[in-house]
Write a structure and sequence with these properties.
It contains ten helices and six strands, in the order E-H-H-H-H-H-E-H-E-H-E-H-E-H-E-H. It is of the alpha/beta class. The protein folds into two domains: 139 residues, Rossmann fold, CATH 3.40.50.1000; 61 residues. A six-stranded parallel sheet has the order 3-2-1-4-5-6, with helices on both faces. The termini are close together.
Length: 209
Amino acid sequence: MKNIETVLLDFDGTLIDSITASFEAICVIFQRQGLDRPSFEDYCVAFKYPFEQFYYDRGITLEKEQIVDEYHKIARHEDRTLFPDSIDTIHTLRSLGLKCGIVSGQQTGRILQKFSTTTVRGEFFEIVGDVECKATSIKEVMTNHDLDPGGVLYVGDTCQDMRDSISAGVVPIGITRGNPTTKLLIQAGAKFCISDLCDLRKILENSNH
């Protein structure tokens, strides 16, 4: 692994504690339609954009707009908070001279709002939200900022995050945040798998020395 100069981060499930609420919202939609709840493993492995396909493949017949409306009413992303180590880890990465950015499917405005009153609000060189294909967006970030893919990490919590990282040519890092997903993330291509964001420093120290 080359010297790492840039860390790109997913938002939901990586920086913000929202995955439990997201998964539960999905399950409630299935239950309201009289269908079995998907397993968390199925969600981690198969959920990707276009997100509505995950529902349709498992028997949901609602229109996309109905799914979106129900999901947001239940998940209430506006109430979710940053993980305790998110702010400190961003400060640590910046103190090591690393660039930090976010590439996420979450709404850009919601990402900006979550960081608006924190001490890291100006520490990201790029925040890209409303993403449908992370591989494409990661490539665009690298092109726009003349980044070497081998010197870029992408940290995410789903198997699709790992697959998108590989497609973009960057180093995929899986993060579990207490979920039983280590094996799944490794199988999806994660170069390393960490429990919490603060564990990232060890990987960086080993790769840059």
